Amino acid sequence: MPSILIVDDLISIHEMLEAVIQPTGYATAFATDGEKALVRYKAEKFDLVLADIDMKPMDGITLLKHLKQYDPSAVVIIMTAYASTESAIQALKFGAFDYLQKPFRVDELIQTLRRGIEFKRVVTERESLGGAGGAAKAGDFDARFVGTSAKIQRLITQLKKLATAHTPVLVTGELGAGHDIAAELLHAAGAPAGSPVVTADCKQNDAAVMADGLVGADGTGGKWVLQAKGGTLVLHHVQCLDKVTQEKLVAILRAHSAHMRVICTTEVDLEKLTEEGGFNEELFYRIAALPVQIPPLRERFEDLPLLLKDVAGKSANPQFDARQIEFTDDALATLRAYRWPGNLAEFTQVISQVISTSETRVITSAQLPLRVHELKDWPTLADYLAGQEKQYVARVLHACGGDKAKAGRALGVDPTKL
């Protein structure tokens, strides 16, 4: 029988909640403040904690922090009497599963508790499996994120730890760093074998398509949400969701969090965007419970030899065994001097092309693309974002000293059109 620890300093609330909850089949226990609740939780380990936010000497938020520190998988629902959502958002920020605003309806309470208990069940099952049900193996993380640098090894370790979690993950990092790889690995290693994964690009699809796929006509969940049941929903470029869909997605995640895992990716500072009012605050804290940042390529150049070997192993050359192709010291120095604004995606594209078209087994700096040599003031990440193509071209042209022929070669376009 699932057990719920109710924490409130009013005995009348205990009595009311007991009368409502016990007929549903859940066992209830009580504590009158946060300190007593923490002691009892450590002794008995409840499936769910339902705690009021306004208590002394330890309030609900402080209790939440202590519970999550002691047991990261603890499922905590916060009750708040405040009319604003400020305290509720704060609870989500520190890892609350959900919140209830007093006065709440009985059906709202029971539904929220059921979602929390179901979430706990799923988390417990995944933890007991230890990822064994997933298709990916531990070695797949090392194979997909190649490198021995401290930063890439920290990333691999973090991804392995998060693989079996059911909590949403936010994958951050610059454009082309490998967000899609991280999302694929997290699903493959953490979800049961054969479970669905639904991927949507918030940048490529317009607002109507995203709303239909995520929210649906009746507002209870779109086709993508229903298809992802029992598996994973991946939202790339989540910052591109329109504000109306962001707001509606909050309710969708509340209703379906126990039935699917959500992995979001972004190449912008989503927390800063949220603080500036450009992203829904509640949605941010619901999807950013477990943030993962992928390091840019320029911060792990010690991995360059291994990355070159990996790309060569996946490339083809009509004259040589691509795996035997080597890069001279001057070529390596040129590659290290370049910023690689497109990160791993750009690196793979450039090196694959160089290897595939090389007429010599040893590649020198002179054989590398023009932009790798000459564009030291390459456009920043902001220039790659949607709607800034003109700025991007302008920066390239400036980096080429105004030479349209040179900029055209660097961009791979007709210079007369610049």
**Number of separate helices:** 19
Determine the structural class based on helices, strands and strand pairing: alpha/beta
Q: What is the CATH third-level topology name of the largest domain?
A: Rossmann fold
Indicate the radius of gyration in whole angstroms: 26 Å
User: How much of the residues is beta strand, in percent?
Assistant: 5-15%
Beginning-to-end CA distance, first to last residue: 69 Å
Q: What is the C-level CATH assignment of the largest domain?
A: Alpha Beta
The major β-sheet equals: 5 strands, parallel
List the helices and strands and how they pair.
Layout: E1 3-7, H1 11-21, E2 27-31, H2 34-44, E3 48-52, H3 60-70, E4 76-80, H4 86-93, E5 98-101, H5 106-129, H6 138-144, H7 150-162, E6 169-172, H8 179-190, E7 197-201, H9 207-214, H10 223-227, E8 232-236, H11 243-256, E9 261-266, H12 270-275, H13 281-287, E10 290-293, H14 304-313, E11 326-327, H15 329-337, H16 343-357, E12 362-363, H17 370-374, H18 389-399, H19 404-411
Parallel strand pairs: 1-2, 1-3, 3-4, 4-5, 6-9, 6-10, 7-8, 8-9, 11-12
